[in-house]
Write a structure and sequence with these properties.
The structure holds 2 protein chains of 2 kinds. Chain A is an alpha+beta fold. Helix content of chain A is 23%, strand content 26%. Chain A folds into 2 domains: 74-279, Electron Transport, Fmn-binding Protein, Chain A (Pnp Oxidase, Chain A), CATH 2.30.110.10; 311-424, UbiD C-terminal domain-like. Chain A is built from 10 helices and 23 strands. Chain B contains 3 helices and 2 strands, in the order H-H-H-E-E. Chain B has helices spanning 3-14, 19-25, 31-43, and strands at residues 47-49, 55-57. Chain B has a two-stranded antiparallel sheet with strand order 1-2. The chains are: A alpha+beta, B mainly alpha. Chain A binds chain B through residues 26-28, 47-48, 110-112, 115, 117, 119-125, 150-153, 155, 250, 252-253, 263-264, and chain B through 18-20, 23, 27, 30-32, 35-36, 38-39, 42-43, 47, 49, 51, 53.
Chain lengths: 449, 60
């Protein structure tokens, strides 16, 4: 049976990576508690919300990311890539736990779910652990993850500033003066969250990616009020529509996954028509930036592996450093043939909004920043080994691209830098022979301590 | 509007504030009550923003 969000919590607890908070917790204090915890937390007693528990800080380390993916820590990109290579279509089921409670009409009240305030400069309480489902008559179903800022008991802001398939769907509806129906599932397994984060080709169903990661189909149920499907085992689902108003309502700031507090943006409004949830549901609070960044890394890394293989370059290892939020930088080592340092750069610079790429030979341990620095120091000539791409697609939350200079709804561009830190053609490899300590294979320090 | 909504209105007329500052000032209210009140302010379309993201209410 496919793993659920609750199964993942159990795995974390069994691994000693989850602590239970039994004392009553005010929702206004939860963010601070999560930020101080080295383990995932499950708050069993949330004040004012007796039916709910609240879980957070689930994937804030590489160890817990590896637990989520069920693989060794250095294999997370390969593991995600395997999911992409064996797509398994979802299956429809008649009913599921996510619809044990159904609230419609005047019973729709977003204040009845534990809607948390996370960061000091946020424009309001936010839902961030969202799997948002939408559909387009031509392009089909799409999954993504979008933040929702509380506005009223039936309305939220939704951040649709960045380029995405759903933004395209919304624009197509907006052009006809129509709303876009969406469903927002929360409390789903990390596989579904990772699949939603993956920038799949527009005709690829991300539920099939999640199925590939699970190794079995994701069971889906039909929504109650919109023509969409959500994971049957989700904890909570919001159904409704994004109003055909364009980018006109204030939204944000929100503590961004870039570790920056962000800015006020102009976005549309999501009107909620129906709320469904489990009996005694668990609310998932995904706190920025680390949880998002750890979850982003394997998605970016897998996209990089695909780009390299499509360019007929053999990757050895790849890393999207969490310092770049698992999103803006890729460091890859390759088994290089002449010229392929540059080919690898060109391929990796095409990945999403990645703006810095470093490519090394396979003798460099890219998981060791000092080793990467060494390659940058001794294998790079700045007049020969740098590639700069101007005016590529960018992301608003990078302050260096000055997105505030654009009009409402505008899309930013960015420059991208590639650094070929492989051994230059014509330089003998023997010049990079590393120091070896005399007797290091014979003498053991522990024999002397 | 409710008395709490009227009070927040007066406070935001007097001084623009971050959402968290408003929430801090009204921790004596239950969170759900506070959120419903915030919804009233939104529905009445009285909230504006300054360039630092603070909320404000324009004067009479």
């Amino acid at each position: 049976m496919k793993k659920s969000f609750r199964d993942f919590l159990s795995e974390l607890e069994q691994a000693g990576e989850l602590a239970r908070v039994k004392k009553p917790v005010d929702l206004r204090d939860v963010s601070a508690l999560l930020s101080q915890s080295s383990r995932a937390l499950l708050c069993e007693n949330v004040k004012e919300y007796p039916e709910w528990q609240l879980a957070g800080a689930l994937v804030t380390s590489r160890k817990r990311l590896a637990l989520a993916l069920g693989c060794p820590e250095n294999d997370v990109a390969l593991r995600f890539e395997q999911g992409l290579e064996r797509l398994i279509e979802p299956v429809m089921v008649e009913d599921g736990p996510c619809q044990e409670v159904v609230l419609q009409g005047k019973d729709v009240d977003l204040t009845a779910i534990p809607y948390p305030l996370m960061h000091v400069y946020d424009g309001g309480p936010y839902l961030s652990a969202t799997l948002v489902v939408s559909k387009d008559p031509q392009f089909g179903r799409n999954l993504g993850s979008y933040r929702l800022m509380y506005r009223t008991p039936t309305e939220t802001g939704i951040d649709l500033v960045s380029p995405s398939d759903m933004r395209r769907y919304y624009q197509r509806q907006l052009d006809q003066g129509k709303p876009l129906e969406i469903a927002v599932a929360m409390g789903v397994h990390p596989y579904e969250m990772l699949a939603a984060s993956y920038k799949a080709p527009i005709n690829m169903d991300e539920y099939a990616v999640a199925g590939g990661l699970h190794g079995e189909p994701v069971p889906l149920v039909k929504c109650k009020t919109v023509d969409l499907e959500v994971p049957a085992d989700a904890e909570l689902v919001l159904e409704g529509e994004i109003l055909p108003m364009g980018w006109t309502a204030d939204e944000g700031p929100f503590g961004e996954f870039s570790q920056i507090s962000g800015d006020v943006k102009w976005n549309p409004i999501f009107r909620v028509k129906c709320i469904t949830h489990r009996r005694n549901p668990i609310f998932y609070l995904l706190q920025m930036p680390w949880e998002n960044d750890w979850l982003a890394a394997p998605v970016t890394e897998a996209a990089g592996l695909r780009a390299l293989r499509n360019a007929s370059v053999e990757p050895v290892a790849i890393r999207a450093p969490v310092g770049s939020c698992g999103y803006w930088t890729l460091i890859a080592s390759i088994r290089k043939r002449p010229g392929e340092g540059k080919n690898a750069l060109l391929a990796l610079l095409s990945v999403a909004e990645v703006k810095l790429v470093i490519v090394t030979d396979d003798d460099i341990n890219i998981h060791d920043p000092d080793d990467v620095d060494w390659a940058l120091t001794f294998r790079v000539q700045a007049d020969r080994d740098l590639i700069v791409v101007h005016d590529a697609r960018g992301k608003h939350i990078d302050p260096s691209i000055k997105s505030w200079e654009m009009g409402k709804g505008g899309l930013p561009t960015t420059a991208k830098l590639g650094i070929d830190a492989t051994i230059p053609e014509g330089v003998p490899k023997k010049l990079y022979k590393r120091i070896e300590y005399y007797g290091q294979n014979r003498v053991k320090l522990e024999d002397y301590l | 509007m409710s008395p709490l909504a009227e009070q927040i209105c007066r406070e935001l007329k007097a001084k623009p504030q971050q959402f968290s500052e408003i929430a801090d000032a009204h921790r004596d209210a239950a969170w759900r009550t506070f959120l419903r009140t915030w919804g009233e302010l939104r529905e009445n379309n009285v909230l504006k923003r300054d360039e630092d993201g603070r909320y404000l209410v324009a004067g009479d």
